[in-house]
Amino acid sequence: MRDQLLLLHELQQIDSQIDRFESDLARMPAEVQSIARNLVTLRREIADTQDRLARAEKDLRKREQDLATEQEKIKRSEKRLLGIRNQKEANALSREVKLGKKVVGEIEDTILGFMAEIESLRSILERKQREYEQFERDLHTKKAEAHSVETDANAALSELNIQKVKVTDALDRDFLKRYQTIKKVRGYAVAELKNGTCSACHMAIPPQVNIKVLKQQEMITCPSCHRILFVKPEDIPEYNKLDG
Predict the structure, then answer these.
(1) Which residues of the chain does CATH 1.10.287.1700 include?
(2) Is 230 helix (H, G, I), strand (E, B) or coil?
(3) What are the E-state strand segments in the chain?
């Protein structure tokens, strides 16, 4: 029985390593895809920001042309105003100049708004482009890491599966089935007994159960979590080390 318990403990250690490597194999592609999705999102955001910037710069140029046109009209009107002697015409032209200056002020305010928007968009665009470049570097690094992890994990899994076959072949079929059933439900099936406490659920084991576990003459499960209880050979008192 002692040998069977040792084999169950060894099987769990192998399964734990297998689970870890399989988790790595599943995790790395997901991380690569996550970075790739971020790149796609950023690419769209950069294109959208570039479009907004182009429209704002086009609108700015248009308003600058409008400003130049209005300022030229005002200059002509003021020049004409100097030569007019008719008061009625002078008043009308003065109103025209006043209205033109109001329009110029409004255009200048609009231009300032476009300039502020353009400055903000350029800042956003530069930041997003830096982020994009960083994500590209991250993607390259993560792909290389994923390749390395995949190579190492597959090599390790190949060896671990060979070890697992050897252990399972040496196990009693009923014990193996019990182990597999508990592992499926609990995640792992063997729990070490430490100082009378189950290391999995941290519940104290009744003294009579503790004695049975130390004797290792039968498979004992934790009354609380129902995992198979295991004691390391070095933790078993000499008087309990019976032939199993």
Answers:
(1) 15-170
(2) strand
(3) 190-194, 197-198, 228-230
User: 3-class DSSP state for residue 173?
Assistant: helix
Which residues have CB under 8 Å from 242's CB, separation 6+? 215, 216, 217
Reported as a single tens digit per residue, the pLDDT across 140-199 is 999 999 999 999 999 999 999 999 999 999 999 999 999 999 999 999 999 999 989 999
CA 53 to CA 122: how far, in whole Å? 7
187: left (phi over 0), alpha (psi -120 to 50) or beta: left
Asked if residues 224 and 199 have their Cβ atoms less than 8 Å apart, the reply is: no
| Residue 156 to residues 17, 159, 167, 168, Cα–Cα distance (Å) | 9, 5, 16, 18
Return the structure tokens found at 65.
């042309």
The CATH class that applies to domain 15-170 reads mainly alpha
End-to-end CA distance of the chain: 5
Is-contact 132 47, C-beta < 8 A?
no
Distances 99 to 96, 170, 208 between C-alpha atoms, Å: 5, 101, 103
Please state, in angstroms and rounded to a whole number, the distance separating the CA atoms of residues 179 and 230: 12
Q: Can you give the three-state secondary structure of 28-43, one letter per residue?
A: HHHHHHHHHHHHHHHH
For the record, the structure tokens of 81 come out as: 């105003």
pTM of the complete model: 0.65
**Are 223 and 209 a contacting pair, CB within 8 Å?**
yes
Measured in residues, the chain has a length of 244
